[in-house]
Amino acid sequence: MGTAALVEQLMSARQQLDFACELLAKPSPEALDSCSSVLEAAGHQLAEWQPTFSQQAGDAAALEEAWKLRRSFVRTARLLQGAGDFHRNWLRLRGAMTGGYTETGESAPLMHGSRISVHG
Amino acid sequence: MANLLATLVSSAGTLEAYGRVLETAQNNVANASTPGYAKQRLELYALPFDPQGGVTGGVRAGKLVTARNEFAEQAVRQQTSGMGYQQQLVDSLTVIQSNFDISGNQGIPQALNNLLQSFSAWGATPDNQAARQTVVQRATDLARSFQQSSVTLSARASDTEQQIGQTVDQVNQLVSEIQGYNHIAMQGNKADSGLNARMHAALDELSTLADVNATFQSDGTVSLMLNGETPLLLEDKQFTISSSLYQPQEPTPTNANGPANVRIQGSDGSDITSKTTGAQLGALLHLRNQILPSFIGDAYQPGDLNNMAKQLADRVNELLTSGNITDGPPAQAGVPLFTYNTSDATATAASLSVDPSVTPDQLAAISPGPPSVSNGVPLALSALASPVDDADKVKGLSFSQFYGQLAGRVGTALNDATNNQEVQQSLLSQAKEMRQQYQGVSLDEEATILMQFQRAYQATSKFLSVLDQLTENAINILR
């Protein structure tokens, strides 16, 4: 495989990660489900192409694209972590506010109760 | 009778709750165009209903939605602080990077290259006066370049110190402003949504400057903690922070006269510098107390610019003094070319100069051997360009490579900060989006979303750990 083809492959994987970042910018459960599919596809592609990478070892253009891919990955990971932390911490706080703490000092699990909601 | 009373109490609670609903709706209408105002909604909770057991039901206004809103606000402020940190690093490192030229066309790299070339030309014609004169001139140019770089970096340190002082002042001013809002809230205006909006606007501004945790109290006031543990504001009592130059005494400094660090102190005088790591203030401290000292030194390190200047001056002097100016008899020994302040390791680059008493004909060219070599010293000096001997290297590198690495360090830090700034921008947008996402979502709806989110998050995390490995492999294979 030539450099151009490899760069194109890496670029294609990067575009998928960038799309995942767009989804994670508005992290609803639905967006995360779509994100999983995108990441799964990118992972399959990279795993499939990986054996051919060694043919271009030392190629500056390919390495640069690999670094860009890595940066996109880092951004994706940070966004997923950001969304995860937000929800996890709120879940913990809400659990503690509604159910107190367990014997081991953890926040109580999320309580469900009937509520009436009035919109102002 | 007891049931009747309980029912009356319950009805009163219900009426109060509905009263607050009306109040909330009125606030939304009145503040529709107030900057920083977020639409409010009041969540009502159904209370258990069991007349036989004396449980009379009714509704109660809940605090969960308010707590969630504040949690989301704090999440946005946290990312705003992160953004402030990266933005400040990018701005400051961009200025510092301009002091490190790596093209070789100016500054230290150019002067170093010229000096090494002049050694080589002198080696070809060791008795040539013009070649000797050129060596002295090039050495003078290089010493001047070191001085200039040191002065410029010290000026950056001084600028940063001023910026820290200004940022601390701004933090204190904003906290004072919020203190005023707390005072108003304590006078019974806690439900004033305009006041609440002004508080949030000030908190947003504050979070760019410092990593501050805000906790809203039931009386409508907000408590502020710097870095999560140093109080800045409790009710209407403000605790000011301050910055000052500080020369640590423990452990005993190796450079007692080296550049001092900047210290941040809480209102009780405690040193909170090491905890102040976030937002603009954290970035400025990192720059002033860590990045810049790695070049120009501090109480515990000479700094790499000084390391390089010292190593170069010492090696050139060592080679020149090991040689002879004339064979004699008696043989006349060479003299050192460079001088610098030997009493302060952090002042080497700033004080580096060519000894004005040295004349070109005092440069020793003859290596005494045996066998004696007429151009042995200039040849040894020109070998500094591509060193083999460890004595000709600085920390295992040639002088040019060492400078390249030094300059590259700033470039790498700037590159990292630029990338992190992009990521941080995405995280800030995400936090704002999540704040928006949950506005208007009922708590029941939210509970369902949270569970769905947890499931989807776990699935996505799995794929991400696979990609972590694959993207790293790609770099390692292609490297």
Question: Which short descriptors sum up this protein?
Answer:
heterodimer; A: 120 residues; mainly alpha; 3 helices; 73% helix; elongated; B: 479 residues; alpha+beta; two-stranded antiparallel ribbon; 12 helices
Can you describe this structure?
The complex is a heterodimer of chains A (120) and B (479). Chain A has helices at residues 3-25, 29-53, 60-99, and one strand at 115-117. Chain A is an all-alpha fold. In chain A, helix 1 (3-25) packs parallel to helix 3. Chain A is elongated and about 60 Å long. Chain B has 479 residues and is of the alpha+beta class. Among the domains of chain B are: 1-62, no CATH class; 107-148 and 303-407; 442-479. Chain B has a four-stranded antiparallel β-sheet with strand order 5-6-7-8. In chain B, strands 1-4 form a two-stranded antiparallel ribbon. Chains A and B meet through helix 1, helix 2, helix 3 and strand 1 of A and helix 1, strand 1, helix 2, helix 11 and helix 12 of B.
Helix fraction of chain A?
over 70%
Strands of the widest sheet of chain B, in order across it, are 5-6-7-8
Average predicted local confidence, pLDDT of chain A:
87
Q: Could you give the distance between the termini of chain A? A: 63 Å
Topology pattern of chain A, helix = H, strand = E? HHHE
Number of strands of chain A: 1
Strand content of chain A: under 5%
Oligomer class: heterodimer
Strand proportion of chain B, as a percent range, falls in 5-15%
Overall 3D shape of chain B: elongated
CA gyration radius of chain A, whole angstroms: 21 Å
Order of helices and strands of chain B: HEEEEHHHHEEEEEEHHHEEEHEHHH
Gross geometry of chain A: elongated
Q: Give the count of helical stretches of chain B.
A: 12
Most extensive chain interface and residues per partner: A-B, 63 and 64 residues
